[in-house]
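queue> pop job 88
queue> type: inverse folding (structure -> sequence)
queue> payload:
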């Protein structure tokens, strides 16, 4: 077997994730969103108090889940913030996603 084809799944996923991070641009603030605090206020779910943990606008759009975890964000907060960071990058309008509560 060719050694290059024997890459483990871990090596492959790490290199793909690294390449994906480099390709993502940091969008400029626009409209009512002027800084990290106003971004977190716009997306709702009581995310605004986390503004003191995120150092800058650029950091918010370049951090991954591991970096957010080291800042003390719980999994739901990390997932929600990364979701809205990507949507903002794509140019979507910010709005609160209502929490449906308990699943039935």
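queue> result:
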């Amino acid at each position: 077997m060719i050694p290059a084809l024997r890459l483990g799944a871990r090596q492959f996923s790490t290199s793909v994730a690294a390449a994906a991070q480099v390709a993502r641009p940091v969008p400029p603030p626009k409209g009512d969103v002027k800084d990290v605090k106003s971004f977190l206020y716009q997306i709702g779910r009581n995310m605004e108090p986390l503004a003191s943990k995120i150092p800058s606008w650029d950091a918010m759009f370049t951090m991954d889940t591991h970096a957010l975890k080291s800042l003390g964000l719980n999994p739901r907060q990390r997932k929600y913030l990364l979701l809205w960071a990507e949507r903002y990058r794509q140019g979507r309008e910010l709005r609160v996603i209502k929490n449906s509560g308990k699943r039935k």
